[in-house]
């Protein structure tokens, strides 16, 4: 998957390096031990159209240094050119579901979301 940022095309790669970067953004620390929760935290946010999570995921998927502000601007340009962000959210979620490194985490996250929705319906 590619995204144009400041006139340059960047390849988004959803591999181990991506997971390490995302774990830095969405991690928790307990008793001095860091636990990466990148996909587990970000994927539900993507399904609820969190633009900040979308920006975090994209930045982490770009190999090399890129400023968060540049990613934010590219997302705004995409939204203006495509009448919204639904297509970009779907493309990112699709790529996460295809990557051999992230697809099992995505399946687990989707199952957890479905289970939570069912529990909410039962309470109604």
What would the principal axes of the Cα set say about the shape?
globular
* Head-to-tail CA distance between termini: 40 Å
- Largest beta sheet, briefly? 2 strands, antiparallel
> How helical, in percent, are the residues?
55-70%
Q: Give me the count of strands.
A: 4
Structural class computed from helices and strand pairing: alpha+beta
The helix-strand sequence is: EEHEEHHHHH
Radius of gyration, in Å, reads 15 Å
The number of helices is: 6
| Low-pLDDT windows of residues | none
Indicate the proportion of strand residues.
Answer: 5-15%
On the 0 to 100 scale, the average pLDDT is 93
> What topology, given as strand order, has the largest sheet?
1-2
Seen as an oligomer or otherwise, the chain set is: single chain
Task: State the domain count.
Answer: 1
Protein name: Phage tail protein
InterPro entries: Phage_TAC_12
Pfam families: Phage_TAC_12
Organism: Suicoccus acidiformans
């Amino acid at each position: 998957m590619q995204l144009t940022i400041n006139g340059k095309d960047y390849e988004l790669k959803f591999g181990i390096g991506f997971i390490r970067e995302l774990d830095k953004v969405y991690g928790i620390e307990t008793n001095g031990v860091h636990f990466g929760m990148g996909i587990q935290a970000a994927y539900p946010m993507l399904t609820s159209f969190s633009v900040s999570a979308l920006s975090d995921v994209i930045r982490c998927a770009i190999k090399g240094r890129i400023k968060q502000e540049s990613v934010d601007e590219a997302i705004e340009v995409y939204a203006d050119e495509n009448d919204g962000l639904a297509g970009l959210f779907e493309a990112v979620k699709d790529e996460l579901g295809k990557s051999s490194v992230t697809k099992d985490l995505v399946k687990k996250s989707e199952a957890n979301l479905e289970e939570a929705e069912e529990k909410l319906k039962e309470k109604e």
